[in-house]
Structure formats: C-alpha cells, structure tokens
Amino acid sequence: MATSFTRSHGANARAQSWDEIEDQQGSGGTGSWLPLDALDEEGYIASPQLRAMPTKAQAAQPQREVFRPTTAHPARVAQPRQAPRAQPQGQAQTRQLPGVQARTLAMMAGAVLCALAVYVAVSSVLEWAQVKMDDLQYGRPRTAQVDAYVGHNEADGVPTHFIGMNLNRRVTVLEMPGGDSAKLSTIVGPYLFGEGEDLTPVQISVQDVNADTKPDLIVSAKNEQLIYLNDGTAFKLISPEERAALEKSQADPKQSAAQPPANPAEAGK
C-alpha cells in the first residue's frame, strides 16, 4: 500500500501522492522545500536556534550571564564607555578664576576694613591719653606760667610773672611786672577755631629774637608761634615787615652781625 501525503483543499479534497506532487513542481524547481545546501549562512543564523534545557542540578547553580555578540546584528553590540577626558589644568584654573578673584577681593576688603578699625581705635586711645596728660600738666582751662626778667618795673629784683591761658578758645596772656598784680596788663591773642580747640594748651617763653638785648615774649598755640617784641615798657605784636626782616637776618647771621643797631642811642654806647 502506497504512503500518501494529505493536503486539505476543502471538504471533498482528495489525497495526493508524492508522485503527483513532484509532477506539479516540475523536475527543475524545488518548490517550497529547499535543500540544506541552498541555505546560506546568514539566513541560517538569523533563524531561531534550539537551546538545550538545563537539568535540575544545573538550574540550581547560579548562572553567570555572558554577553556573546553575534555577527548577524553587529549594531546591537554594546560599545564600552569611554572614560571622561581630563580637562587641562589651565582650563580648570580659568573656570575657577572668577570665584578666586571674588574671594580674594573680599579678603582684601575685609583686611582694609580691619586695618581702618584698628587705626581709628588706636587714634581714639592716643587722643584720650593726650587729653588726660594735658589735664594733669595744664589743667582746665589750659594754663601755663613762667617768671622772667624783661626789664618792666623790676627795681626790687622780683621777676615779671606771665600767665598764658586758653580761655574759652581765646589765647590770653597776663603780665605782672615785677610780680605786682596791681600793675597787671593783658595781652589778647588769637581765637582758636575747630572742634576740641578749647583744650589746646598755650605755652609761653621769653627770648631775645631780634638781638636788641631786650627779652621778647613768644606765645605758642596749635603749632602757631606768636612773637611779641619788647620795647622796654610793654610788649607789642611783631609786624609783617619786622617778621620779614627777622627771618632774613636769621637766614644770614653775618649780615645781621655787621648791620649797625637801628636805635641811635644804642650806637653811642
């Protein structure tokens, strides 16, 4: 009995034999059946492959997945990640430069403010200490006293007494010829402008500045020096012409020594 291959074409389909199938396909064609030689490597690899089922003992052991790239799908092969490129040192410093500059400027500004605060504090302490020292030496109001022989009513051999004061910012000098307060004379000096000038000390001294053998009065206040020339009976403030001549004579002492005295009475002595 011949074996037949049955293909259904409907309810009343007749079974065809192998010979009829071969006659329909022809001697030259292969039909839908392809020999193994006609299969190329690419189609064979792309087709589903059979896998061996693991045994129970193998399933119990942990399996480590191994990535095996295939030649059929080269695009699916995972590419290794590239390590990030190290930035050049110059670029890193350039990017950090604005922050470093801002921090440096902030530190410099803080240092300047600290130095200014220290300067103000030290100045305040020194000023306070100077005021306290002047209080001990000159008192309030600021007062200075000196005794000197100036040739004003000193027949009894008692020197003239001078009192220099900063009286409410006004420089004032009191003269007691021969120590006699009944013959008191007052020399009114300049007014001191500025904050805290009421505590400026007034200093007085006696010196012959114009070389006429008569001691003159020098009053110093606030880095300013006032010269009162002695005319034999009183003191008068030096004039601008007399000051210019005095400065010229001090600059050239030989000329002042060769110059004859201005008073004719002194020339006959």
Please explain how this structure is put together:
The protein is 34% helix and 19% strand. Among the domains are: 38 residues; 115 residues. The chain is built from 7 helices and 8 strands. A hairpin with a 2-residue loop joins strand 6 and strand 7. With 269 residues, it is α+β, with helices and mostly antiparallel strands. Strands 1-2-3-4 form a 4-stranded antiparallel β-sheet, with no helix packed on it.
Radius of gyration, in Å, reads: 62 Å
Q: Note the overall shape.
A: rod-shaped
Proportion of helical residues: 25-40%
Q: How many strands?
A: 8
Low-confidence parts lasting 5 or more residues at pLDDT below 50?
1-6, 260-269
Structural class: alpha+beta
Whole-number mean pLDDT? 76
The fraction of residues in strands falls at 15-25%
The ordered H/E elements are: HHHHEEEEEEEEHHH
User: Biggest sheet, open or closed, and with what strands and sense?
Assistant: 4 strands, antiparallel
Q: Strand order of the main beta sheet, please?
A: 1-2-3-4
Number of helices: 7
* Termini Cα gap: 187 Å
List the helices and strands and how they pair.
Blueprint: H1 18-25, H2 41-46, H3 56-60, H4 89-138, E1 143-148, E2 160-167, E3 170-176, E4 185-191, E5 202-207, E6 216-221, E7 224-230, E8 235-237, H5 240-251, H6 253-258, H7 264-267
Antiparallel strand pairs: 1-2, 2-3, 3-4, 5-6, 6-7, 7-8
Structure summary:
The protein is built from 7 helices and 8 strands.
Features:
4-stranded antiparallel β-sheet; single chain; 34% helix
